[in-house]
Amino acid sequence: MRRFLDRLLVAAFVIVISVPLAANLSGRDGGDAEAENRTLAPFPVLDRSLASMRALGPGLDAWFSDHFGFRSDLIRWYGESRYFGFGVSPSPMVIRGENGWLYYEEDGGIEDYANEPLLDAEALHAWHETVVRARDWCKARGIAYVFVIAPDKHKIYPEHYNPDIHPVTAVSRTDQVLEALADTGVAVDVRPAMMAAKDDDRLFHLTDTHWNDRGAFVAYQQIIEAVRKQRPAVPPAHDRSTFNATSRIVEGRDLAATIGLKRVLHEEDLRLLPKAGRGYKVLVPAGGYATGGDPMVVTEIPGSTLPKAVVFRDSFTSALAPFLSEHFSRAVYLWQNDFDASDVEKEHPDIVIQEIVGRHLYVFYPTPWLVPDP
Description:
Elements: H1 2-25, H2 33-36, H3 50-67, H4 71-85, E1 94-96, E2 102-104, H5 109-114, H6 121-139, E3 144-150, H7 153-156, H8 173-180, E4 187-188, H9 191-197, H10 213-230, E5 243-251, H11 254-258, E6 266-274, E7 281-284, E8 296-300, E9 308-313, H12 317-324, E10 330-335, H13 341-347, E11 351-357
Parallel strand pairs: 3-4, 3-11, 9-10, 9-11
Antiparallel strand pairs: 1-2, 5-6, 7-8, 8-10
């Protein structure tokens, strides 16, 4: 009897570990790139080169790890058991808040919520020097310059954060940097306007780290107002009445994908669509979108004589770009935190906007010497 049970256990083990491969051989791909919010390993290409032969083994291993049968199902089942069964986040990268809100913990997120540690005098001086040098370099060439810090979701909606986690101090790095830049005349604080608007609209996605259309619109109005103080030729920000406020139910977004529940969690996507349509066209990438995450996005308004702009940005500008692009004959969006004078010289813009999200003040250190003397 004991031998029979041992054999039965071995047979069951062999069957279980064989099922994923059998699923692959039958044509079932267990990977789901969209659900995981990342690019899965491709199947290796074997040609006559020695390099491809050497890469075949590791390539097959990487491909099978990402595509083995039932992989996406197993990830989803694990996520459901943790999220619904135990009431916790399935991933250490995501904080499960209250009322369906998810928050990003990585990339300086948890530190930014806790306001710890704060910047020292040397770092604040570096920020001040960097922004002043960029402002003065632009001014010497007749270019307006605006610096903006995009607030994270946990700064606008701390009330939905995990109640077991508390800020160490009331002062944030964003507070520190904006205070240090108060004498520059170019720093924009969009937080007061967003705090005032949050009672009328939800300004961030529930299952995404970013602001939605309506949050980006509030920030856009503040940015354009700051730009117009230096370049009145830029048209005033559009009024909210020129947009249709629409909504739709969508699958969970980036943070839901991070915890394996993109196909399980849903939210109401609150949108703003221009009643008159879009006036700009996306030139780069061809066939792309202003909201895309490409290293370079270029928009133009055909036949326009409006000023031109260069925008140094991170992911928070993706939702800003459709609004900003209506104000410039040509807008070049470059995905980088540093101000790069050589990129500005290539474009000869009238305005430079530099945007950085607040949590990146924990992972990005400014380098004043990268900005040339005026």
